[in-house]
Amino acid sequence: MATVPVTELKPTLEKQQNNPVNEKDEDKPEKKLTVLETHGYALGRTVGAGSYATVKVAKSDRHNCQVAVKIVSKFQAPGDYLKKFLPREIEVVKGLKHSNLIRFLQAIETTHRVYIVMEYAQNGSLLDVIRRDMFIDETRSRRWFRQLLEAVDYCHERGVVHRDIKCENLLMDKDFNIKLSDFGFARGHMKPKNGIAPLSETFCGSYAYASPEILRGIPYQPQMSDIWSMGVVLFAMVYGRLPFDDSNYAQLLKQVQNKVTFPKDPKVSQPCRVLITRILAPQRTRLRIAIIRNDPWLIVAVAIAQTSTTDKSVDNIPTISTATETKVFVPETPDIPKLLTKEALVTKHQDTNIGIGLENELPIKEIQAHSSSKSIEGNYENRGKKRTENRRNL
After folding, report:
1. Which residues bind ATP (predicted)?
2. Does the active-site annotation cover 164?
3. What is the separation, in whole angstroms, between the first and last Cα of the chain?
4. Which of 52, 128, 249, 308 fits a disulfide with 77 by CB distance 3.0 to 4.6 angstroms?
């Protein structure tokens, strides 16, 4: 029987060792990339969650930085939001670019979800700072209010009104600069025509920040209502609480139609109180942005604002702490408008077990920040009944 020399067997053995045959490996399918992964985004931790949307941090290969991804479930989101407000939000933010606005980067729509990719503000919201520090000193308040003023003025000059300005929607970047976010109730094409300012009849926003004309349910100038909300934000910064109690509609309406009152503590300068009073005023006498910009309190030289390093407990917050759990009482009468809040848009839905898993999703379309002004379209149904309760925002 012929034998094979050992020297001839050695190359064969080496070849088998270098290229092992594994039938299981051949049958194992390659891992399918998620929709976001195909666009270069690797999802990370959750930084916010609501009834029908979740916000996660993601690492972006395209932008070489961290971004925020808002994930909206089509199964859980209200029909009005999907058909009206979400397309309008994307349409509006695509054309905005300002240092004090959260920058829109990309929107991706799939069969089950809509992903909105935005600039990530890693230092939370103004509300977080107020809750930590109990109130904001006038030096920081002046700087941040000026930044808010510049952001809102930029929007108004381009015919965009925000209609939901509040502390939760003012985010902080790495240098603690204000970034106005959440244009879910925003509307474009609102520039005055022939000297006549267009009126809005969608009564939306948050009760505690809503202007008297919105609460009365009459057509209003949205630019002036944005300014009112800015006044509420300034009050909340320097006092650490909201100026108006939104737990009862009748009481709230009475308060906003009277001159604003100030608590004894903390101590706030008279020029600051005067500015707040002139902003939280009836629409006919309410200050315009051009006047606010030159207000004596606001033009004081400002040092770079630094957040405090004290570690104050959230449990020690004054009025502001428990407000998020307060429900609004709106009597069932035709004379009282139902304010369209984000909470009121939420619908009860039977498919409560649908999560935000990203597997096996097929992209339908993609909207780039630099693309044409084509909004997301689709056939969505309003599922369930609206929930009319609202919670206080600070």
Report:
1. 70
2. yes
3. 93
4. 52
Q: How far is residue 125's CA from residue 99's CA, in Å, rounded to a whole number?
A: 16
Q: Residue 267, annotated ligand binder?
A: no
Residue 364 confidence (pLDDT):
36
> Torsion angle, CA of 93/89/39/121, rounded to 10 degrees?
60
DSSP for 239-298 reads HSS-SS-TTBHHHHHHHHTS-----SSS---HHHHHHHHHHSS-TTTSPPHHHHHT-TTT
Q: How far apart are CA 294 and CA 310, in angstroms?
A: 33
- Tokens for 139, please give them: 């030096």
In this structure, what token pair is assigned to residue 59? 């690492």
CATH superfamily of 126-344: Transferase(Phosphotransferase) domain 1 (1.10.510.10)
CB atoms within 10 A of CB 88: 18
Domain ranges of the chain: 35-120+345-368, 126-344
Could you say which of 164, 182, 246, 295 is catalytic? 164
DSSP string, 330-341: --S-TTS---B-
- Of 352, 348, 333, nearest to 389 by C-alpha is 348
Q: Which two tokens stand for residue 376?
A: 């997301």
E-only strand ranges, the chain: 41-49, 53-60, 65-73, 104-110, 113-119, 170-172, 178-180, 363-368
Tokens standing for residue 185: 């109730």
- Give the predicted TM-score (pTM) of the model: 0.74
pLDDT tens digit string along 154-194? 999 999 999 999 999 999 999 999 999 999 899 999 988 88
Cα–Cα distance, 341 to 336 (Å, whole number): 15
Contact 366, 108 (CB under 8 A): yes
CA angle 83, 89, 94 (to 5 degrees): 130
Which stretches of the chain drop beneath a pLDDT of 50?
A: 9, 303-305, 309-319, 321-334, 347-393
Radius of gyration of the chain (CA): 26
Distance in angstroms (rounded) separating the CA atoms of residues 205 and 214: 9
CATH classification (class only), 35-120+345-368: alpha beta
Spell 242-277 as b/e; 16+ CB within 10 A means b. Answer: bbbebbebeebeebbeeebeeeeeeebeeebbebbb
CA distances from 88 to 40, 142, 354 (A): 26, 32, 25
